[in-house]
What does this fold into?
Amino acid sequence: MRVVVCVRQGLDGELGPFDASAYEMALSLADAEVTLLSMGPATASEWLLRLTRLGAQKAILLSDKALAGADTLATAYALSLAVGRLAPDLVLCGRQTLIGDTAQTGPMLAELAGFDLATGVMGIRALGDGRALLDTREGEAEVALPALLTVEKVGTLRLPRLRSRVGEVEVWNAAALGADVARCGLGGSPTRVVKTFENQTGKRKCQWISMYELDRVIREGLGKQTPLADSEQSGERLARVCIVGESPRGFAELVSDDIVLLPLTDASELAERITALSPSAVLWASDSASKQLAARVAARLRLGLCADCTSLAVEGGELMMIRPALSGSVIAKIRSMTLPAMATVRTESGSVSDVIVGVGMGVKDDLGRVRVFAERYGAELCASRRLVDNGYATYDMQVGLTGKVVSPPVYVAVGISGAVHHIAGMQRAGTVIAINPDKNAPIFDYADYGIVAEF
Ligand SMILES: Cc1cc2nc3c(=O)[nH]c(=O)nc-3n(C[C@H](O)[C@H](O)[C@H](O)COP(=O)(O)OP(=O)(O)OC[C@H]3O[C@@H](n4cnc5c(N)ncnc54)[C@H](O)[C@@H]3O)c2cc1C
It folds into this structure.
């Protein structure tokens, strides 16, 4: 079984948590011949060599000036040429990196390589007869080989064995790939960052209250409307905008009065409809089914796709797409060089309850009392990554950059410090209430109400 694992070196020089899970999943397959595949500067070959010590037979580094500055489509194009040469039975990719955190490259690569696709993969149950049986976030799934799987943050990457040996690292440039350089690197990237600025999203003016006022502010919060997007209606209007599924309509109304609804069908039918309608923009929801379909259609039509937009605007007749980046620490304004412009917009509330109680390490020994408190409001319990990583909560409860995004009317953060990675997943809640004995905890910068106390 030939298995390729796509990995990207993080800003910290290490492997991100999703890529690490994908690599571990590949190494756990019996009789697998594992090849690491990465795109980056020549300096990444040292890092790849170290990674081969864990068990990969070899690593391929795509490195060339012509490949630099690539967005997800240009990256997927270069990777697809390498996959074409390696001809694996299975390609494993982490759900997302922590640099772009778009979750687009995997599905785009599957489309360009002509591979079957499964996203949100938690485990491989069986492999054989040209098929793979999988556990995914959405339940059981089956794909035909060759297939590409995007892997969730499950399992921990093994450590090198004492006498483990390194594999070989080959460096391939654009010529070796037979690449059309016009589709590579910054020049071949249809999405362009116009500017970035510090992420003030979610910052709030915190009002200090006592524990006795908690019930009142929760009930008041339930009566408030949660704003859909972080911006007002744009003065300039776009001609026709298509929405795939109903939920992006609120975002579309920010920028256009001519909105066409398209059903969530398959990639080929949607690509045909979009080409026939020739809209200015196409908006998709940010649930995993919509995101993977959007990525496949974008690859099929060679269009730019901007992920997880929190707001939209029209400037000079062009759609400007606003999204958090770099683990939520900055906001990027992005334009598309191709038309229609395409974006997934943050619609997914990921929760069914109007009240979510987010639990952190601060109350790991008090979860029983927190549960009783939550039941009083019919609230859903969510968790920080530290609580999940330490085994006090399950991964499906995790909120944040490497968890789910929630935007309920009321979010009560109990025993959570307020790291940017967590904030990225709940900053668009209607009312945020934080309970923490440390008055300097960053969570209070993102709360409407603060209770400086032990829960
Ligand atoms: C690449 C990457 C991705 C990440 N992704 C995520 C993600 O998706 N989601 C996420 O949550 N984190 C994520 N993290 C981790 C994140 O950076 C923080 O480490 C984590 O969110 C901290 O969890 P915490 O607030 O529960 O714990 P801590 O930071 O330990 O905070 C515990 C808090 O509890 C308070 N406290 C103590 N006792 C009490 C009490 N009795 N009552 C009330 N409060 C009390 C303390 O004052 C403290 O502020 C990620 C990190 C990285 C590097």
